[in-house]
């Protein structure tokens, strides 16, 4: 999240850095990593009430800020969800590489969303079938490709 984003607290506007300026950070261990945390519930104009978590990892110099629209959620749970993103993004990169997909940056947002949804459904179907048939994801993609080519040219 951008540090210069303005949020509203008790009717006054603050930049996020100013909001956490005097806030004392508490130390928490989440999934084996140590974090220094502070959180506040604020109003973002045009969005509504959100929880912002200032998060500083032990080995980092600059904090980063996480936002959750579920303002009742604990900061630790917000960070756990953020840590899951790494695995999800890695899976998407792997699937994109295996399926030899290229970015489609010249299309509309609606078209991109449909394309991503279609590729996610396709990847999940192949993943399901690979577990069901007991073969690897890559081998199943190759088998499907061979069958498609065979039916197209014969």
Helix percent band: 40-55%
The spatial strand order of the largest sheet comes to 3-4-5-6
Distance between the termini: 53 Å
Strand content: 25-35%
H/I helix tally: 4
Total strand segments: 6
| Mean pLDDT over all positions | 80
User: What's the SSE pattern?
Assistant: EEHEEEEHHH
Explain how this protein is built.
It contains four helices and six strands. The model has no long low-confidence stretch (mean pLDDT 80). With 154 residues, the chain is α+β, with helices and mostly antiparallel strands. The strands form two sheets. A four-stranded antiparallel β-sheet has the order 3-4-5-6, covered by helices on one side. Strands 1-2 form a two-stranded antiparallel ribbon. The protein has two domains: 6-84, no CATH class; 99-153, no CATH class.
Name some characteristics of this structure.
two-stranded antiparallel ribbon, 45% helix, single chain, 154 residues, alpha+beta, 4-stranded antiparallel β-sheet, 4 helices
């Amino acid at each position: 999240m951008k540090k210069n984003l303005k949020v509203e607290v008790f009717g006054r506007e603050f930049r996020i850095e100013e909001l956490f300026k005097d806030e004392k950070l508490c130390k928490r261990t989440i999934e084996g990593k140590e974090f220094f945390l502070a959180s506040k519930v604020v109003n973002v104009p045009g969005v509504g009430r959100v929880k912002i978590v200032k998060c500083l990892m032990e080995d980092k110099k600059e904090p980063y800020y996480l936002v959750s629209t579920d303002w009742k959620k604990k900061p630790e749970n917000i960070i756990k969800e953020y840590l899951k993103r790494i695995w999800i993004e890695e899976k998407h990169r792997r699937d994109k590489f295996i399926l030899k997909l290229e970015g489609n940056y010249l299309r509309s947002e609606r078209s991109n969303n449909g394309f991503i949804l279609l590729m996610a459904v396709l990847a999940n179907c192949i993943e399901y079938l690979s577990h069901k048939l007991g073969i690897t994801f890559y081998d199943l993609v190759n088998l499907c490709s061979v069958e498609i080519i065979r039916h197209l040219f014969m």
